[in-house]
Design a protein that fits this description.
With 66 residues, the chain is an alpha+beta fold. It contains two helices and four strands; from the N terminus they run ββββαα. It has helices at residues 30-36, 54-60, and strands at residues 2-3, 6-10, 16-21, 26-29. A four-stranded antiparallel beta sheet has the order 1-2-3-4. A hairpin with a 4-residue loop joins strand 3 (16-21) and strand 4 (26-29). The protein starts with a strand and ends in a 6-residue tail after the last helix.
Amino acid sequence: MKYGNVEYIPDENGTAELVKCPLVDDWVSSIDCLENQGVIESAIPARFKQKPDWREICERCPFRDY
């Protein structure tokens, strides 16, 4: 399924369980996604900050306020 331009796999209730994170172009659990929502650089694991515009990508993600 897709929400905006981001793929996700829903749980039995239709809520995103896995999200194809545009920061790493791979599946992450919804809790990993939520941890990045504060966009506090020191709290975000390095693997999510590999792209030069990682902060903007995260801020534009439709799952940011999901």
